[in-house]
Amino acid sequence: MKIGSIDLGERPVMLAPMEDVTDAAFRLMCKQFGADLVYTEFVSADAIIRGVNNSLRKLQVNDAERPVAIQIYGKDIPSMVEAAQIAEAAHPDILDINYGCPVKRVAGKGGGAGLLQNIPLMMEMTRAIVDAVHLPVTVKTRLGWDCEHKIIVELAEQLQDCGISALTIHGRTRSQMYTGEADWTLIGKVKENPRMHIPIIGNGDITTPRRAKECFDTYGVDGVMIGRASFGRPWIFKEVKHFLQTGEELGTQLSFSWKLDVLREQVRQSVARLGEYRGILHIRRHLAATPLFKGIRNFRDTRIAMLRADTVEELFRILDDVEASYGHLTDDEIYIST
């Protein structure tokens, strides 16, 4: 699969752009575990133009994480074009436009998925950005605004005609937010459309290596994108790539202690970037969501203590105790049978 001249190989697996998640350290970690393409957190066009420091920091990429895409969002053409040119100067490999964020503070103000209610503006904006930069421009969007307006098959053609180099589709409508199941059937219909010639990337509910392979096999997508399933589990890319290549699960090859060491490294990097207090607050999302601790017998009190810890010393002491209790056991011995 190629985006412009960027060759991502066969069946690439990508890290989705996620606010307060896909910072540089996390992107690099996912890249090291096999992610073929990583995306920055989405960045507000208005904030880029105003020179807001935190937003400008989000534009910073390094060679070790390439290929990398910067994703921007906004509601009007002049600011999106200017922001696209500023983002291009940060030298990403790809510029991605966010037409999919469903949250009220974005979509409710006309940005992100809000553009699904104004398709003429979306088309004009897309063409203007494609014409304004020299990078490959891609789009990430949803099936439509709500279940009565699932317009993605027609929309994909229109976006392709604007000159984009690839399209990522999240298999939900804006009104679904992140609830219910992602509908991959319409993603498959986009891919089946004989008029479509750009790569189609599917996103939504890819939580296991087997599901990633099913999406490739059943819906014919060119690539898959993993979002929330990477929280506290950056090694999912290693698991997926191995399964795609061999048809076998990694299973116990990635031990409990090994995964715990990955989480410790996430803590260290978060603290190094943000300082101890803010770094620990930032990493709690990963600690709360990681599947590593799900299903462990009588773990509730330990989980609460882990999420209340406010120093690295305290948090690592808890993780060390967890490893001492479970690190020597097999998965069947650690987890409750279901």
Question: What brief labels describe this structure?
Answer:
single chain, 338 residues, alpha/beta, TIM Barrel, eight-stranded parallel beta barrel, two-stranded antiparallel sheet, 15 helices, 13% strand, globular
What does it look like?
- The chain has 338 residues and is α/β, with parallel strands linked by helices.
- The protein contains 15 helices and eleven strands.
- The protein folds into two domains: 2-248, Alpha-Beta Barrel (TIM Barrel); 255-334.
- The chain has helices spanning 24-32, 45-50, 53-58, 77-89, 104-107, 119-132, 152-161, 185-192, 209-219, 236-246, 256-274, 276-289, 300-308, 312-326, 331-334; strands at residues 2-3, 6-7, 13-15, 37-39, 43-44, 68-73, 94-99, 137-142, 166-170, 200-203, 223-226.
- The strands form two sheets. It has an eight-stranded parallel barrel, surrounded by seven helices. Strands 1-2 form a two-stranded antiparallel sheet.
- Helix 9 crosses helix 10 (236-246).
- The longest helix is centred in the last third of the chain and has 19 residues, at 256-274.
- The chain is globular.
- The model has no long low-confidence stretch (mean pLDDT 95).
